[in-house]
Amino acid sequence: MDIKGKVAIVTGASGGIGYATAKLLSSKGAKLALVARSQNKLEQLAKELPNSIAIPADISKVEDIKRMIKQTCDHFGRVDILVNNAGQGYDAPIEKIDVDVFRGIFELDFLGPVVAMQQVIPIMRKHGGGAIMNVSSGLALMYLPGMSIYASLKRALSHISLTAREELKADKIVVSVVYPYITVTDFEKNTVKASERNWENDEEGDEGGAPFKADTAEYVAQKIVEGIESGEAEVFVHDWMKTAPAS
Ligand SMILES: NC(=O)c1ccc[n+]([C@@H]2O[C@H](COP(=O)([O-])OP(=O)(O)OC[C@H]3O[C@@H](n4cnc5c(N)ncnc54)[C@H](OP(=O)(O)O)[C@@H]3O)[C@@H](O)[C@H]2O)c1
After folding, report:
1. What is the pLDDT of residues 62-71, one digit of tens each?
2. Atom of ligand 1 nearest to the CA of 14
3. Per-domain residue ranges for the chain?
4. Which fold has domain 7-237?
5. Each residue of 64-104: pLDDT tens digit?
6. Atom number, ligand 1, closest to the C-alpha of residue 59
């Protein structure tokens, strides 16, 4: 897809990967609907990016997602690109998983992106196609103790993305999934934790031999935007992730 002039919704645009992705899409000429809960940060970014609007919304709430799509259509008349990026980690061993926290993470990391897809599909179909990029995680490909809920939801997001891709081919709606690796953002700080984990040690490496230098949000944004442009099904931010051992 040629991004110039396209209308893109980026969720989680107030920081991290979403912020970097919104900026890069804007630099390529996209019109942006910037979505997250932090209104001030979104409004600041909207001032910087031409043809952009701030839409404060909680992606774990179905009504907010519907409003986000409606506001985007009311303002721009269409949606060509949806980047389902808003998300949060949950670090808890199986026996310590709190069912209510699980539900909240499920609603944000899986249900929210699915509802957003449901809402944009008829709009994209009406306008002849579109691109949906769902932000999964490298953890969806691995078995990291403590991260079972988060990784399972990201794996489910990957699966539904690739199934939707098949379903929507005839409508020229290209659904893709991206697997970021450890990225320097507030993700770790915002992860809900049942107990403390020393992430710095995690980043030193593991027996799988994978290189463990964290990526910048700008690097991941570049991969996301290249994925939207190429329409590839799965975007691995590093080639070694395609064959890395899962545990
Ligand atoms: N960083 C990593 O190492 C890494 C690795 C793999 C995958 N990922 C995935 O990449 C995506 C972006 O994460 P990040 O690293 O950029 O983390 P981040 O710095 O914590 O940013 C998360 C973004 O999501 C928004 N958000 C959180 N809860 C929300 C809610 N209920 N409704 C709407 N927006 C919400 C936040 O904004 P507000 O607080 O303003 O709402 C923020 O803009 C996530 O899906 C994450 O799972 C990250």
Report:
1. 999 999 999 9
2. 43
3. 7-237
4. Rossmann fold (3.40.50)
5. 999 999 999 999 999 999 999 999 999 999 999 999 999 99
6. 32
